[in-house]
Request: fold
Amino acid sequence: MRQIKSCRALVRWAGRAYSGCMALDLTRFNLAAHVLAAGQATPDKVALAVLTLTGAERWSYARLTRAVLGAGGWLLAQGARPGDRVLLRLGNTPAYPIAYLGAMAAGLVPVATSPLLTVPEITRMAGAIRPRVVLSGPGIALPPGPDLAADLVAWEAHAPCDWHLGDAHREGYVVFTSGTSGTPLAVRHAHRAILARAMMHRGWEGLTVQDRLLHSGAFNWTYTMGTGLLDPWTLGATALIPSPSVQTDHLPLVLRRHDATIFATVPTLLRRLLRGELPALPRLRHVLSAGEALPASLRAEWRARTGTEVHEALGMSEISTFISSCPDHTAPDGATGYPQPGRRIAVLGPDLKPLPPGEPGQLAVATSDPGLMLSYEGQPAPQGAWFPTGDLVHQDHAGAIHYHGRVDEMMNPGGVRVSPREVEQALQDLPGVIDLAVAEVEPAPGTRIIACFYAGGTLPESTAQAFAAERLARYKCPRAFLHVPEIPRGPTGKVNRRALAALYQTRTDP
Reply:
């Protein structure tokens, strides 16, 4: 894949990725202004529709831009100044993306956080990033200290701020890692990160100005913010977001009624949708999947039931997605996808040197990538040629990336490393099972085995053991199979293996 070596070169590349792209001065740049620029040519076009079963709340590009600039003006009127951080503690409403873009429009730095966090959790995180403003919504846990209640009506009526223009490399926004391996880390991103997302438009989303992209997630999820909102708006397309009243079972009907052409979601939700009836979706072109690994069998079943392809993407908080399948370059079965055009990646061995095709190692992205974070809070910028991601993969001779799991999730029973992803893929067709995951557990002090947890119909353990023995080497076979009501997963759908190990102990302790 060709490497884009500078942000200025990326701008030239992005300009070819969609029509009407204006010439950009990276010394006078603003992420929010860039996102909303294309929509200014069609001010009356629907930028955002918040969907219900019977209708929709619609925001034109003119109204959206007015609210964003009004929110920025309102924050400045409360005493915030360019460079200050704004901690977002908002619920699942349009106020979230409007505050997010409004803060950046005014030169402030929004800090995205999950509304599910508890008071102790958000207090620790606030201490790490030291916000000047805490913007609050009803019922959301807050850190100690003053806060400002979000007021969307006031923002729409407030005098607009001017676009705060500056170096595209300056801090634009902050997100937190999931913290599944320890304490969440604050990730600092530059305004220029929005330009790197142009590589996703072609290399994953297949997004055009005519599309109506429906994202199944909430407004206050970073996946929704990027793929569901910022990307369609950057091209002047329409973003569709279900209101909180829309249940999972209603999504197929909503997709059909509102003529969604692209559906962005997670594998867990696709699995749930396939359990029910799916109406014909004649306008749907394809599905985007991220947040957790997509099982090959799930992709195949969705394709068979709907006639549409699922394009998976792999990414992380530090860079967003950079490996993906796309309509122009569909990943083969069993592979996640290819490096997006413009990305440069490597698969590193234990010595952190690139490995040849076919050998598993740690996925890394070039530190020169314009979408890579500035740094973790309080730490220097990534050094060296490569930024290791912690994902265990191999790249085949055709360039496709095959995902094996997280390096820190590798199981090691009996001193032999085993990928949980490999075991789960081999067992995904267990009869009657609708979901499963594996984890390394300790049935006795000093003894560690692989256990398989599954939801759905119950199976005799002898049947499960025989099924595994036909598909896996003996050292990879689970030694225990436990039926559970559901597989514990985090907010993004990723398996919580720590919870599985704890569940095993509670189920087996005398």
